[in-house]
Fold:
Amino acid sequence: MQTEYMEHEIKVLNVDIDQVKAKLEELGAQKVYEDERKFTILDNENGDYLKQDKLIRITEEGSVKVSIHIHNSKPEIKEAIKYKASRVKEQLDFFLAIGLKPIAKAKAFRISYELGDIDFDIDNFYKIPPFLEIDIEHVPNYQELLKKLGLENNEVVRMGTEQIFEHYGLNYFEEYKI
Structure:
């Protein structure tokens, strides 16, 4: 299968949002986004996509993005196919017409920064401690970067958001079930 995007990211758990913002700005990172994001997760009646470790999601964050994540629970091989859409309602109508329906809706507050080729996203899902997502594709030594951010003692994981919820003893899909 030809895919558009392979993820190369780490998550730094339980971060202090104000501290991370200050350190990123001190390093010269530029804030590029700060707002609430909304997620709609879709599946068929039987939950077949989630059973196959596939996640279909509509994300609203200034624009509308649609994505399917393949091997969703395995970040080391997770792949995603993504595209931008014009309207949420059109996408929902399309998915409903092919037998997919919303099964969960979530909200999170995100602050995004860019420093050269590196993307940083601070996510706060309200039900778990905030975490920092770092796209490490262009980072030769992320340990050094964590030290500059004062995060060298924080827990670092390669997990998707759903697995981070499990890490804290919560089921993402149950927490946000429709």
About this structure: The domain at 6-175 is CATH 2.40.320.10 (Hypothetical Protein Pfu-838710-001). Residues 17-26 form the longest helix (10 residues). Strands lie at 5-6, 9-12, 30-43, 54-61, 63-70, 79-85, 101-115, 118-124, 131-135, 156-157. DSSP finds six helices and ten strands in the chain.
